[in-house]
Amino acid sequence: MGTKKVQPGAGEIWRLAERQHWLVTRAQLLGHGMSTEAIRHRLRTRRLHRVMRGVYLVGRRDLSVHGRWMAAVLACGPEALVSHRSAAELWGMCAGATMPVHVAVPVATHRRRPRVHVHRKKDLGPGVRREVRRVPVTDPVTTLVDFATEAAADDLEAAVNEASHLDLVDPETLRTALDRYPTRPGIRPLRALLDRDTFVLTQTKLERHFVPLALAAGLPLPESQDWLGRNRVDFHWPSLGLVVECDSLRYHRTPLKQAKDVRRDQAHTVAGRTPLRFTHFQIFHEPAYVESTLRPVAARLTRA
Fold first, then answer.
1. What gap in Å lies between CA 56 and CA 229, rounded to an integer?
2. What dihedral angle (degrees, nearest 10) is formed by the CA atoms of 24, 3, 37, 11?
3. Distance (Å, whole) CA 85 – CA 231
4. What is the DSSP track for 92-118?
5. 205-303 classified as CATH 3.40.960.10
C-alpha cells in the first residue's frame, strides 16, 4: 500500500484554522505551500467554504458569532480590529451581534467588503490591540470612545456601566483616559455622561431611570451597589440612613424573592436605616409618584 500524500503545510494550516475559529485566508493558504489549483479543488469538494472574498471556512463547521467577527477582521488585513458597536458586543458591554460588522483599519488600508463597515483610523498602534476569544479587537477605552459616536445616550450609559461591572475599565480610569483623545469624535458624549455631578454606576436600565428621579426629589448622589451586611443594595445614602431598592419584573416577581425582599427591608429597619422599594411600573410609568414619595422622606431624614 502506498502512503497517503499530504499537502505541504497541511498540519500547520489545520492548526492555524483552529486558532482562527476554523477560518483561513487565501494568503495564508498560499503562504503554507498550497497552490491556487489546490484551493480550487478544496472549494469544489467542499473542504473549504468561501465566507467572503479571500476568507474560507475549513471543513463543514457552521460559522459561529465569534467566527463572523474573525472573518471580517481577516478580510480586512493583518492590522484590522473589530471596533465600534461590534467591539462593544464582543467585549460584552452590550447585547446582540448586529450586522454589518464594524472593523477598524489603518488609514493607508483601502478595503471594502460586503457586510463589513470599515473605519480608517490613524491610531491603531499596539496599545490599542486586544484579543477576546482570539478575535482581535480595540481596547475597552477605544471601544467606548468609538461606540459613543453612534450609540444612543441610554445605550452608552449601559455600556459604561457594564464595562465597569466586567472590570474592563472603571469610570475614573475612563475619564482620565479621555484626556488622550481631546478632539476625537465620541469624547463629548462620554464626558457629558461621566460628569462628576451626575454619573452613578448602575446595573440595569431600571436603575438608570431611577437616579434622575432621586435627584429631582432633592436627594444627593447616592452610593450604588453598596454591601450592607450580607446584602448588596441598589442605592444607599449613608449620611441619611436611606436605602432604595428598584424591583425589576424579572428578579422580584417570585414568592421566594418577595419573601427575601421583606427580610432585607426588616434587616435595614433593625439597623436604623429607612428602606424604600419601588417597582418597575412605578419608576417607568409613575415617576411623579416616585418623586413625591422621596421628597418628604429626604426632607425628614435631612432634618434628622
1. 55
2. 10
3. 34
4. TSS----SSEEEEEETT-----TTEEE
5. yes
The mean pLDDT of 1-5, rounded to a whole number, is 42
Question: What's the chain's average pLDDT?
Answer: 86
> Residue 105 and residue 287: Cα distance in Å, rounded?
45
Residue 6 confidence (pLDDT): 42
pLDDT band at 229 (very low <50, low <70, confident <90, very high): confident
Q: Rg (Cα) of the chain, in Å, rounded?
A: 26
Is it the case that residue 198 has pLDDT exceeding 50? yes
- CA 134, distance to chain mean position in Å, is 17
C-alpha angle 134/167/103, rounded to 5°?
A: 40
In the chain, the percentage of residues whose pLDDT exceeds 70 is 91
The whole model's pTM is what? 0.69
Q: How far is CA 165 from CA 79, 168, 170, 237, 241, in A?
A: 29, 8, 8, 21, 25
pLDDT-derived band at 299 (thresholds 50, 70, 90) equals very high
Domain boundaries, the chain: 10-62, 66-193, 205-303
Angle at 55 between CA 53 and CA 59, to 5 degrees: 130
C-alpha cell at 144: 467606548
Beta strands in the chain (DSSP E): 23-25, 48-52, 55-58, 81-82, 101-106, 116-121, 129-132, 135-138, 223-228, 231-237, 242-247, 274-279
Strands laid side by side in the 242-247 sheet? 223-228, 231-237, 242-247, 274-279
Nearest Cα to Cα of residue 163 among 193, 119, 196: 193
At 51 the three-state DSSP class reads strand
Q: How far apart are CA 253 and CA 258, in angstroms?
A: 7
